[in-house]
């Protein structure tokens, strides 16, 4: 909750006005209740250039449900980068939590069934896993060992990106 982990997320050297994600331990329930009044941990310095950071307002982001959560942003006047906070339990560019995604993959691998929510979203994750598995080795049907191997490399196993993002710092 109070501790934080800051990370440069793809691309590793963004343009001067690029947006970076700061993965922060967040109590999502409390964030939902408090909105913009949530006590965000303030970064000591810019993770990109080491400069000072100023508050840069809030931006709505959607995670798992239809209610937007207000994510804190900071701006570095030195390198002009904008940094946006994001809960640690979500991979970049995914609105469902890591636990939800991994449970879905485990069920699909073990039981060859989908969980009782959006099949399109789950199929997107499955196809992303197939892409990442094919990058590592020639596998007809991904198994849990392949998921674990991708996670062990600190990569997002369900991304469709060719240049796979790291999961965390």
Summarize, please.
With 169 residues, the chain is an alpha+beta fold.
Can you give a write-up of this model?
- The chain has 169 residues and is an alpha+beta fold.
- The protein folds into two domains: 69 residues, no CATH class; 79 residues, no CATH class.
- It is built from four helices and four strands, in the order E-H-E-E-E-H-H-H.
- Strands 1-4-3-2 form a four-stranded mixed β-sheet, with helices on one face.
- A hairpin with a 5-residue loop joins strand 2 and strand 3.
- The N terminus is likely disordered.
Derived from helix and strand composition plus strand pairing, the structural class reads alpha+beta
Ends distance: 17 Å
**Contiguous runs where pLDDT drops below 50 for at least 5 residues:** 1-17
- Strand order of the biggest β-sheet: 1-4-3-2
Question: Globular, elongated, flat, extended or rod-shaped: what is the shape?
Answer: globular
| Computed Rg | 17 Å
Strand fraction: 15-25%
Mean pLDDT: 83
Number of helices: 4
State the domain count: 2
Number of strands: 4
Order of helices and strands: EHEEEHHH
Would you spell out the secondary-structure blueprint of this structure?
Elements: E1 19-24, H1 28-34, E2 54-62, E3 68-75, E4 82-87, H2 98-111, H3 119-136, H4 144-152
Parallel strand pairs: 1-4
Antiparallel strand pairs: 2-3, 3-4
How would you describe this structure in keywords?
globular, disordered N terminus, 4 helices, alpha+beta, four-stranded mixed sheet, single chain, 169 residues, 2 domains
């Amino acid at each position: 909750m109070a501790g934080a982990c800051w990370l440069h997320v793809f691309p590793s050297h963004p343009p001067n006005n690029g947006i970076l994600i700061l993965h922060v331990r967040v109590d999502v329930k409390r964030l939902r209740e408090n909105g913009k009044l949530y006590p965000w941990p303030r970064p000591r310095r810019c993770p990109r250039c080491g400069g000072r950071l100023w508050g840069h307002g809030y931006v709505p982001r959607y995670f798992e449900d239809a209610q937007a959560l207000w994510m804190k942003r900071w701006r570095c006047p030195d390198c002009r980068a904008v940094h946006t906070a994001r809960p640690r339990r979500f991979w970049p560019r995914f609105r469902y939590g890591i636990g939800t995604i991994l449970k879905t993959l485990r069920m699909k691998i073990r039981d060859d069934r989908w969980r009782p929510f959006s099949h399109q979203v789950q199929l997107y994750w499955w196809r992303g896993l197939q892409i990442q598995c094919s990058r590592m080795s020639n596998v007809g049907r991904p198994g849990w060992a392949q998921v674990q191997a991708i996670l062990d490399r600190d990569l997002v196993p369900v991304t469709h990106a060719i240049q796979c993002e790291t999961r965390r710092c």
